[in-house]
Design brief:
CATH topology of the largest domain: Rossmann fold
Radius of gyration: 18 Å
Number of strands: 14
Number of domains: 2
CATH class of the largest domain: Alpha Beta
Length: 263
């Protein structure tokens, strides 16, 4: 673990996972609004992070605003942003996307074609609008030697009804049917998911904190990036999961409601 004070002294920016940390599905976690208010009162900038690539930035802004959380596009960081950076860096403009219309709109806005008949890459995201036709065409491309890039590794998407199939589950399907492994997997736990924003803010990693409910994405990314890792037990992880886990948080709290109470 890194050497951080549990009171967050010196922290200038907080990166916040969403589902399991700020809300569960359509319901806010108790105390989340008050926690966000305390961040603002103490001059700590906040950014909302999600590996969920099924929604666009605008859709996340709308959801948060509907939950009573004022926010704007610049405060949303998605695995799709990390994917866009990777595609751009590698000069990829022609893709076949297995993803939602919201994800497609983000790629198309960056001049990346998402339904190319001669794609440079098959792109796999969290497709809540998936059809067999999409899976079929993507498989054909993969069998023909088109490489694969994935927006994030999550196997399940948290839901109050139980975990739902996420990108990792679709990836396992493609592996089973085509034998293809991805060239690259974007999103958390890649440190680049937040390091580019930290540099843009003119901060050092030890001036930032990451709040999340998953050890293998949120806390692993915090450890890789050198930021304070705060594990909340309001989502997926529980105390038993921490024992002997290679990804150790700097701080464990029941929920974000427990943070900054006396600052």
């Amino acid at each position: 673990m890194n050497d951080f004070g549990v009171d967050m002294n010196g922290v200038k920016a907080a990166f916040l996972d969403l589902d399991g940390t700020i809300y569960h599905g359509k319901e806010l976690i108790d105390g989340a609004i008050e926690f966000l208010d305390r961040l603002e009162q103490n001059g700590i900038q906040r950014f909302f992070l999600s590996n969920n690539s099924s929604r666009s930035v605008e859709q996340y802004v709308t959801k948060l605003q509907n939950l009573g959380i004022p926010t704007n596009n610049d405060e949303i960081l998605l695995s799709t942003h990390d994917l866009l950076a990777w595609l751009t860096t590698n000069g990829i403009t022609q893709t076949y996307l297995v993803g939602t219309s919201g994800m497609a709109s983000m790629l198309e806005s960056a001049s990346i074609t998402t339904d190319s008949v001669t794609p440079q890459f098959v792109v796999l995201g969290y497709d809540t609008e998936v059809t067999y036709a999409k899976l079929e065409q993507a498989s054909v491309h993969l069998h023909a030697g088109v490489p694969l890039v994935v927006s994030h590794p999550d196997m399940v998407c948290p839901d109050p009804r139980g975990g739902l199939p996420d990108t990792g589950a679709f990836l396992a399907l493609f592996k089973a049917t085509t034998g293809v492994n991805p060239v690259h997997i974007c999103g958390k736990p890649n440190a680049g998911m937040i390091l580019h924003k930290i540099a843009e803010l003119g901060l050092e990693p030890n001036q930032c904190a990451m709040f999340g409910d998953r050890l293998y994405t949120d806390i692993e990314m915090a450890n890789r990036a050198g930021v304070m890792g705060v594990l909340v037990l309001s989502g997926e992880a529980n105390e038993a999961d921490i024992v002997d886990c290679p990804q150790q948080p700097d701080l464990v709290v029941a929920s974000v409601a427990d943070m900054l109470p006396g600052v």
